[in-house]
Amino acid sequence: MNIADIGIGIVGLGGMGHLHASNMRTAGATIVAGADLVAEQREGFGVEFDAATYESHEGLITDEEVDTVVVTTPNKFHEPISVAALEAGCNVLVEKPLGHTLESAERIAAAAAESDGICMVGFHNRHAGSAAMFDEYKRRGRFGELTHVEAEYVRRRGVPGPGSWFTDSQLAGGGALLDIGVHAIDLALYTLDFPEVVEVSGVARTTFGTKTEYADPDGFGANWDAKAETYDVDDAVSAFIRCANGQTISLEAGWATNRDSSMDFRVRGTEAGAHFEIGDTDLKILGASTAGTDHYADSELTGDSSVTGHAEQDQRFLETIVAGEQPATNTVEEALTVQRVIDAIYRSSKSGRAVRLNPEPEAVHHAD
């Protein structure tokens, strides 16, 4: 098998669906089908990619030309689509988060374990240029032992459309934490080689979504009307994550806050540290030396801006299918660890106490 033999079906034909389809077509795969409830989305996708279109995922999965399914729907529908595709023996790339709840994510993981298909999860930021350079310098021992990660994914004003599925707990499962904080958590755990997480403490806040007056200078959330729209999710989260080996992670995630926007990612090591922006191509290494005289020894690295995390991730997915091996990155097990941390943050916020993680933590549904 080669990449050209892979028949891709995209479920969810919005922006992310088109992005994955474009990346995979560029990589040499064949886009054979797309599915979406919205007729206009189906029509546009079918024309752009010369693909068959379906109103439901069931029709797409039974299409004989489809052997690989990409899931880019609202979070609640990740499970039924992914499980159906995996049970049919298809390969699956499901966008983050793995599920809208921990229980849902666990059911996807169980289906993936039983399937002949390969399953990966869409955490693209670990494939961006900055993260790739960090990985290589970490492999060379430049940072020594990693001790702490400061992870921020914060918008000053950037709530997705109120009343859309993003702000509906029944469809999304959560707010800013599940939408953008999930990226920061995954990248932090990935940076630390996914250590065992033993304790999580966090606070989830809903500050802006219930306001009838909301200043939105950039027009991120069009037609704001809190009274008329569904908004029962968090719009900002602060959390602290402690790992079994003494490594720690501090997290700030938010759709809207009265502070500067930030996608800063800072890693501390015993020999040097690193600073970059999530998803960016550049990396700053922060060191110090006694050579000649005591001084700071910093290096600024500039990566290839033409290489994107999304494209690299999709290429890895296709190469994994061709190899016929279980993925070495973006695994379901890693995504399930991220989901357990998210669930623990919500439980900590609800109880007002730190949450210890057991091998099989009790999951809860959450809305705030």
From TrEMBL:
Keyword annotations of the record: Oxidoreductase
InterPro entries, alphabetized: Gfo/Idh/MocA-like_OxRdtase_N, Gfo/Idh/MocA_oxidrdct_glycsds, GFO_IDH_MocA-like_dom, NAD(P)-bd_dom_sf
SUPFAM superfamilies (UniProt xref): Glyceraldehyde-3-phosphate dehydrogenase-like, C-terminal domain (SSF55347), NAD(P)-binding Rossmann-fold domains (SSF51735)
Residues in GFO/IDH/MocA-like oxidoreductase domain copies: 139-273
Superkingdom of the organism of origin: Archaea
GO function terms (MF aspect): nucleotide binding; oxidoreductase activity
Pfam families given in the database record: GFO_IDH_MocA (PF01408), GFO_IDH_MocA_C3 (PF22725)
Segments forming domain Gfo/Idh/MocA-like oxidoreductase N-terminal: 7-123
Family annotation (Gene3D superfamilies): Dihydrodipicolinate Reductase, domain 2 (3.30.360.10), NAD(P)-binding Rossmann-like Domain (3.40.50.720)
Name of the featured protein: Gfo/Idh/MocA family oxidoreductase
Species per Swiss-Prot/TrEMBL record: Natronosalvus hydrolyticus
